[in-house]
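Sanity check. The docking grid for coenzyme A depends on where the pocket ends up, so I'm generating a full predicted complex first rather than guessing from homology. Inputs follow.
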Amino acid sequence: MFELQDSIAIIKLNRPPVNSLGAALRQQIASDLEQAQAHKGVRAVVLIGSDKAFSAGADVSEFGTPLQRQEPILPTLLARIQDSSKPVVAAISGVALGGGLELAMACHGRVALESAKLGLPEITLGLIPGASGTQALPRLAGLSVAYTLMQSGVPQSARQLAESGLLDQVVATDLLQAAQAHATELANSNTPLPRVRERQLDAAAVQAFVNEQRSKLSPRQKLQPAYTALLDALLAASGDWASGLARERALFLKLQSGLPAQALRYQFFAERQASKLPASLQAEPRPVHTVAVIGAGTMGAGIAICALDAGLSVLLLEQDDAALQRGQQRVNDHYQSRVTAGKMKAAVAAAAQARLTPTTDWAQLKRADLVIEAVFEDIGVKQAVFQQIDTHARAGAVLATNTSYLDVDAIAGVTQRPQDVLGLHFFSPANVMKLLEVVCGAKTSADVLATGMALGKTLKKLPVLSGNAFGFIGNRIYNAYRQQCEFMLEDGAWPEDVDNALQGFGFAMGPFAVADLSGLDIAWRMRKAQAATRDPRERYVAILDHLCEAGRLGRKTDAGYYTYKDGRQVKTTDALVRQTIEQASAQRGITRRSLVPEEIQRRALLAMVNEAALLLSEGIASRASDIDVVLVQGYGFPRWQGGPVFWARQQDRTVLEHDLQSLAAEAGYGYVRADLSTLLKVDES
Ligand code: COA
Ligand code: NAD
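Predicted complex below; grid placement will be based on this.
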């Protein structure tokens, strides 16, 4: 029931946490609206949400269920609002996203707090707005603003949108009063109520805009049907409202039942679940105000930046003054470039930099609540550093290593407090990449683990729990994938065949282009370290070693798998690489054959699936969906393909088992063929 204030009916949206427009809330709004219409004392209506959310849009968990189809469905509700003879004004605070913004656009007026965030993020779920968003937003805010919001999916603040035409008024405070005043004004006006459906766009301008944008779609966007559908829907906005709506709805429903949208919905919930520890591991995190970062190289500087950005105090410790200066320069350069690019206010950057204390004095460590080590990837160096940390850090401080592959227990073991040690595996660039693997050692205590997860959230990362295993979740799967891609080189493919096929699947880059970018010497060094323990009966592809021996270390030497001219990759591999690969095939007694893209994609994915199943059965990953989050967030796996687990679950089980068997046979000695039962089970907590 609404509240009546000075002839204005206040309809409060009250469905915590984010007022998603599930069946019950839609029903409540419709019935309150109906009562307000019928009530003689009501002259106008204000719709208002909570401080956190006007509404975060359609209830994603209802998608594909009967609840989504329960009347009033969103389009019906929005049509009733537009039809209302009494003015309806949206009072927007917090977020107005997707259906939430569509709801606001169906109203006759919109007033927003300047901090409110408005957007149509459907594209991030593989969809387009399905309840008039594609038709209403360009009519209100113009083609360019509308397309930017819909195509990026990134919300903008009411402050940014103040001049766009979307909002009638943007206020700093007193939202409800401003909305009531606007509603009264509309009720007093003699002119017809402003209804978005009555606006007309210039058809020729819409057509020209859509044609231009279509030609700008990237190859990755073309692989995702929502991008083309969005332009199709926008084109329909050149005509009348009713046919535009019909076109939009048809496109929306088709996308909604398709695989990319299912995969993206799955990722939406998987990401939120990943950051929650399983019930058995939950504990109260330790408070963290000051973080010490040891090693101010690529990773250390990036980690320091994200801690500073999160408002923490940061101690940056290096082994000598020269290295410290270089590290501090990295941090300063970052803030300088943010300010120059207009992405950060100078005062905000200065405040962040003021929270940084660079030092070479280990005694300073006692100030830290949490210490993150990011020194060279060498067990001896790391153990020596942890002994120092153990000497200087205060009792109760959390001690973390950013190692990529090394054994967290072997590092914790040199301290007197292994229960306080965990892995915090950031990805490069650490201030950009959202993924954070939180690695639990054998003795890590529950509150230390909880502190790692909580720190991840403070740093606006996506923390995912991992057990302690070589490469944790991500690098271990990536290694299996890369190894399979190397097998395919020996079998007959060229690096560009593999890279193109995997880009065709949607990977941001193929594995050989990635290897060149990271530098082949990193893998080379690791391979040399493992050489002594490698079983000679295992299939080992030495192509990378030979390239490194020839001085081809990747982009930094202008040659690796590919050659580079003026920093740009030459598309096809050169004679030396081909010769190296052909020799490798010959040595293994393989007659080279060509591999079609489908085979390349399938083998690469099967290798990931096998490793994922092993990680699950070993308890390294606690949920199958966590693996998909890691691959998407850290390794360029196309989000709209869901991840290797999601992919495996779409395959025919018998064919999958058969193909995995062939994969194992091709790999030969030492390859462990996983049991897929747990991985394929969809129901998990
Ligand atoms: N439908 C269903 N559930 C939703 C939802 C939606 N549209 N938006 C958020 N939720 C749920 C989350 O799953 C989470 O549930 P949980 O606590 O059980 O895990 C809870 O609401 C809080 O969301 P969370 O993302 O953890 O909070 P936040 O404060 O970080 O972010 C939002 C809030 C609204 C900005 C963010 O949730 C969001 O962007 N939601 C999606 C909006 C969207 O895409 N709408 C268009 C739908 S077509
Ligand atoms: P880097 O070589 O850029 O930086 C290492 C820094 O540690 C150097 O500045 C060095 O002076 C400093 N250092 C070495 N010994 C020290 C000591 N005893 N005391 C204090 N400082 C010391 O290396 P990086 O790429 O930043 O990698 C650091 C760690 O992060 C490694 O464990 C690496 O595996 C991991 N990691 C790297 C990446 C990446 O892509 N670079 C990604 C994830 C994790």
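Relevant for the grid: The chain has 30 helices and 20 strands.
Also worth noting: The first helix runs from residue 23 to 38.
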